[in-house]
Amino acid sequence: MGQPVVHFEIAGKDGKKLEDFYARMFDWKIDANNPMNYGAVETGGEGGIEGGIFTAQGDTPPYLTIYVQVPDLQAYLDKAEGLGGKTVVPPTPYPQRRRFCPFPRP
């Protein structure tokens, strides 16, 4: 059985425009009323996951990040590297999510 996607983030040049698009397109509930203007997304529906939409900082190009739950983070990092990926940030503790570690696709 595959590993589940548990969170996603969409970043672009205009976070508000992205929020409006996805809210209208998919009827998502998005709340960006917070100091970071981070659009917390409730996708709703059975099996729906939470996510975030926001403005990318500085010269950062638009990007999409998916968060996948795995039973052994280090084993999956090793697997990613064996498949041509690269660890760019070591495993990092994160409240309510245990640990996370971003890596780019090969």
Automatic annotation (TrEMBL):
Residues 87-106 are annotated as: Disordered. It comes from marine sediment metagenome. Coiled coil: none annotated. This is Glyoxalase/fosfomycin resistance/dioxygenase domain-containing protein. Residues 6-100 form the Glyoxalase/fosfomycin resistance/dioxygenase domain. PANTHER family: GLYOXALASE-RELATED, VOC DOMAIN-CONTAINING PROTEIN.
